[in-house]
Specification:
It is a single chain. This protein is an alpha/beta fold and about 290 residues long. It is built from eleven helices and nine strands. The strands form two sheets. Strands 1-9-8-2-5-3-4 form a seven-stranded mixed β-sheet, with helices on both faces. A hairpin with a 5-residue loop joins strand 8 and strand 9. Helix 1 runs parallel beside helix 8, helix 2 crosses helix 4 and helix 9 crosses helix 10. It is globular. The model has no long low-confidence stretch (mean pLDDT about 90).
Length: about 290
């Protein structure tokens, strides 16, 4: 039964990829946003989480439900782009990207491995296209999904963006360390601590944890950790922001500094922050 379920889920992804792949970019983008907005009406617990998170970010509980609808629309755009991308479209995607802080990347890229720490903003995978133009050999850590066929599909999709993927499972830390020592650039989504055993921080005024990976790897190799944001433009395209490396302090100090950067990034475009799961310990308490 599990195998049949995996095949059905994988088949759905392939069908959606086939459908969205036929669309021109404007239709793909608007269809994704419309479907995401519609999903917000049946999303249940995920919508409740979105509203909680946006209330923390904006401090405005009355505005959060409306912002949450827009966040789901943005998430729909992310998925539409994921299904739409093809190797032949990479140059087209690159032509509609812009970046602040590319000079920072150029300054550090020839000194050894780099660590890019990102929140789940916009289409974070599109950063792979910009990384290619900057001459970076990009490796990303990604969650191992229960369906191995879909995990493999995601690996293939990210390869189109120029991203080599290491799944977060047994042995992943050692593999990432090896890649970093070899001069690769690691892209690590760092706003969700999946195991809940990360580094304590204050994030939007409340205690939670960030994953320890970026800071531990930096300490073991001396690699700089660059905070990065990836945004959708109002219409077509993406905009990336790179900041100076975190100060070399304790792991705890580095984590808190990164949390501050993430707060800045998310406040710029709160409806592009695609975290719909519990993120703070209080999110798991009964409503």
């Amino acid at each position: 039964m599990s195998r049949r379920r995996d095949l059905a889920g994988y088949g759905l992804y392939r069908v959606l990829s086939g459908i969205f792949g036929l669309f021109p970019e404007p239709l793909m983008r608007r269809s994704g946003e419309a479907l995401g907005w519609l999903l917000s009406f049946v999303a249940g617990e995920r919508r409740r989480m979105s509203i909680r998170h946006l209330t923390r970010v904006t401090g405005d509980a009355s505005a959060a439900p409306g912002l949450s609808r827009r966040a789901f629309a943005s998430y729909g755009r992310y998925w539409a782009e994921t299904f739409w991308v093809r190797p032949r479209r990479i140059a087209e995607i690159a032509a509609h990207t812009s970046i602040e802080g590319d000079d920072i990347v150029r300054r550090y890229r020839d000194q050894g491995g780099l660590i890019l720490a990102l929140p789940h903003l916009g289409n974070w995978e599109a950063a792979g296209v910009e990384a290619l133009s900057l001459g970076l050999d990009l490796v990303a850590a990604a969650e191992a999904l229960p369906n191995p066929l879909i995990s493999r599909w995601f690996i293939e999709q990210r390869a189109m963006f120029g991203i080599d993927v290491v799944l977060v499972q047994s042995g992943a830390s050692g593999e990432l360390l090896t890649r970093l020592k070899a001069g690769k650039t690691l892209a690590l989504p760092s706003d969700r601590d999946l195991k809940g055993r990360g580094i304590p921080v204050r994030f939007f005024g409340e205690a939670t944890t960030l994953p320890a990976g970026p800071f531990v790897l930096a300490k073991r190799t001396g690699a700089p950790v660059l905070p990065v944001a990836t945004y959708f433009k109002p219409g077509r395209g993406h905009h990336f922001v790179v900041r100076e490396p975190l100060a070399s302090g304790t792991v705890e100090a580095m984590a808190q500094e990164l949390a501050g950067h993430f707060e800045d990034f998310i406040r710029v475009a709160p409806t592009q922050w695609h975290v719909l799961q519990p993120l703070w310990p209080s999110d798991r308490e009964p409503a």
